[in-house]
C-alpha cells in the first residue's frame, strides 16, 4: 500500500498541474484521451466500467441519489430522491421513493414514497434526501439526510446549516420504514472548532468485517478552512450511538483547496474502497477512487469514473454524482449515480456495468 500511495501521490500532483493547461489538451470527454501521458492514474474500478443507461426518467420529476439493493424476491430495488419543480427545490421538496426492476438496467416500476419531510419543529421537517440502503441482519437500514429550513436562523441562516443524518429501518424492502429516533442518528459537534460542527451529510454505511457499523459522512469545515471533508463514526449497533473517530477528518483535499463530495465505501478482496464525485482534483465531471488497508488511512485519489459521454451516446457532458455500488458475492457489479439532463432535461439515475 505504501508503494501505491507514493505512485498515486505523484499522479495527484500531475493531475493538479494538468488542470491549469489549455483546452487543446482536453478530449471530447473533458479529460485527456491518454491518461498516462497526463500523469493520471486510472483505478481498476474505472477501467472495469463499461456501458451506461439512464433510469427513472420521470416526467415532471427530478431524480437523484439512486441506492440499489437486490431483494430476496430476486428483483433489483432502488431507493432514490425525487422532487418536482426546479433542481434547487431539492432543498425543500425532496422525498425518498422506491422502485423495482427485474434487472439493474430497468425498466423500473415506481412503488411510491418511502419517507418525506415531517414538517413542524422536527429536524427533518422539509427535505429528505440522498438515501443509502443496506440489509443489516434481518432488517433493512435506510440512511438519509434531512433539514429544517425554518431553523437555519438558529445557526448562520445558510440553508445547509440544518442538514443532519437520519436512519429508518424496515422488516421488508416494501416497507414501512420507521425512523429509529426523532433525533438525527449523527449530529454535529457542539464545538465550533471541530471540522464537523456545521453539518453532517451524505452517509455511506460500511458493515465492517469485525461486526461494527462504520458510518462515513461528509461535513463542511465552515469555521476553519471552509472545505468539505470525509470522516467516520462507529457503532456496535446499527441504531447507534455512533462514536466519531479520533483521526477525523480521514479524507481532505484542503491542501490543494479542493472539496470532498458524495462518497460510497465498500470492502472487497481485503481492501477498502471509496468512490466519490471529483470536485476538481482531476476534473469536476469525473469521479475519484481511494483505497485503504484499514478503512482509516486512505491513498491519494485515482480516477474513479469518467464522464457520462464516455459510457453513453450522449454528447453533452453532465454532472454525475452520488455514486452507489450494487455488490454481488462481495464484488462490485454495477455503479448507480445521479445524472443531470436527460429526456426531461431535469435529472435521472444512471447505471454503469462493471466488467
From TrEMBL:
List the InterPro entries: Glyco_hydro_beta-prop_sf, Glycosyl_Hydrlase_43_Enz
**Sorted alphabetically, which Gene3D superfamilies does this protein's record hold?**
Glycosyl hydrolase domain, family 43
Annotated Gene Ontology MF terms?
hydrolase activity
- The superkingdom listed in its UniProt entry is Bacteria
* Signal peptide as annotated in the record: 1-20
Key words, A-Z = Carbohydrate metabolism, Hydrolase, Polysaccharide degradation, Signal, Xylan degradation
Q: How is this protein named in the record?
A: Glycoside hydrolase family protein
Say which species the protein is native to.
Shewanella electrodiphila
